[in-house]
Amino acid sequence: MTPAQGIFTFYVGRMFFVRFFAFLLFFVIILQMLDLLNQSSQIMAADDATSQSLWRYVSLRAPQIVSQFTPFAALLGIIVTLSGLSHSSEITVMRASGMSVYRVLYPFGIVCAFIVLGHFIFHETVTVKSSEALDYWEANDYALNLPHDTGTRTDIWIEFDEEFISAESAARFGDAVLLSGVTIRTLNPEGLTDNIIEARAARHEDGVWRLFGVTNLNAQTLTVTRSEDAIWTNSLNPELLFALTLKPDQTPLGELIRKIGQLNDDRADTREAMTALLSRISKPMATLVMPLLGAIAGFGIHRQGVLLARAVGGSALGFTYFIGESLALALGKLGVMPAIISAFFPFALFMVIGISILLAMEK
After folding, report:
1. Among 38, 81, 229, 342, which residue has the least CB neighbours within 10 Å?
2. How far is CA 141 from CA 41, 86, 137, 242, in A?
3. For 51-108, what is each residue's pLDDT tens digit?
4. Which of 298, 294, 302, 291 is nearest to 360 (CA)?
5. pLDDT tens-digit series, residues 222-274
6. CB of 171 within 8 A of CB of 156?
7. Nearest to 87 by CA among 310, 302, 313, 355
8. Helix H or strand E encompassing 117
9. Which pLDDT tens digit goes with each residue over 289-316?
10. Which one, of 164, 137, 129, lies nearest residue 57 by Cα?
């Protein structure tokens, strides 16, 4: 790289980064204010709540907004930067001096690569922990002085051994695991509910589940029986229970990989967890596509169209990417698409679209 090329890269890269940071800060401030207005009454309803509770909520919620809107801020930053360069005829001068479209976009690619790396590190070291802490705090109605607890699951709903199992919570107490508010629905071969068991609690000790305060409804005979306790025969062990109820977006990457391995060993459903794992890589990588999609704002196809129309077109391509990514990830978690395709197909597709746009602009 010659000194002149280095100056150009620094000039355009700095211009883009400043705009990217400004847009990201704008999104964080505006969305955080709206979210805080919506949640402030619940936060302040907790006993002894003060303004410090609001600041704590902001500190836990802001990282989620940063992770979610980083690619979008990069897209808008690219569009505004290229539109400004096009409006001031700087891109015309660059092209007249012999620069290709790829060389003009080179500084954007370099900055985007650093943004991707920073986004990934920030998400894994800050956002994951803050999301877990915020979810735990919300589940306890924003109560103050909560003990740190990572071994409790709430709002459980899983399918295992032809049974639908729901519970209000699952918690560890030493070597025992206690479920509260348990409902077990057994299905017959036709897929209809055959039996419903409701229990006040369930405790796993010595390899078996014991139910307490049991109400048993036989859906075939419509008879109800009650008992103080009963044995629940199911191969669902506590470790598998906690693996199945894992929240992938709130789990460190290493632990998530280990839990997926455990689910594979137990032949349990890994579709949601695997899709979430791969999305932890694909979502930051979305920023790499933004220079290709936003290029239309600075160059346009065959140099046709007004500047505003080109900027709107680049924004529309970016919006389409984010919609397609969300849809693909939802389909992957449902098992409709393989996890690797749902995570990376939108990235590959829009990368091809972006390169096609660049080829058209080079003609």
Report:
1. 38
2. 11, 51, 6, 23
3. 888 999 999 999 999 999 999 999 999 999 988 888 787 877 887 777 778 888 889 9
4. 302
5. 788 888 888 887 777 777 777 777 788 888 888 888 888 877 877 777 888 89
6. no
7. 310
8. helix 101-122
9. 998 888 877 665 444 456 677 778 778 8
10. 137
HSE on the CB side for 81, CA within 13 Å?
28
Cβ proximity of 184 and 197 under 8 Å: yes
Identify which of 247, 280, 246 has the alpha carbon closest to the alpha carbon of residue 67: 280
Both structure tokens of 249 = 């977006």
In whole angstroms, give the CA distance from residue 353 to residue 293: 8
Which residues, at least 6 apart from 73, have a Cβ–Cβ distance to it below 8 Å?
20, 21, 23, 24, 27
Nearest to 291 by CA among 358, 361, 345: 358
The Cα–Cα gap between 293 and 142 comes to: 42
Order the strands of the 176-187 sheet from edge to edge: 152-160, 163-173, 176-187, 193-205, 208-218, 223-232
Residue with tokens 């455990």: 262
Report pLDDT digits (tens) over 348-357.
999 998 888 8
Nearest alpha-carbon partner for 71 in 282, 275, 250? 282
Token pair recorded at residue 195: 């039996």
Give the DSSP H or E segment for 166: strand 163-173
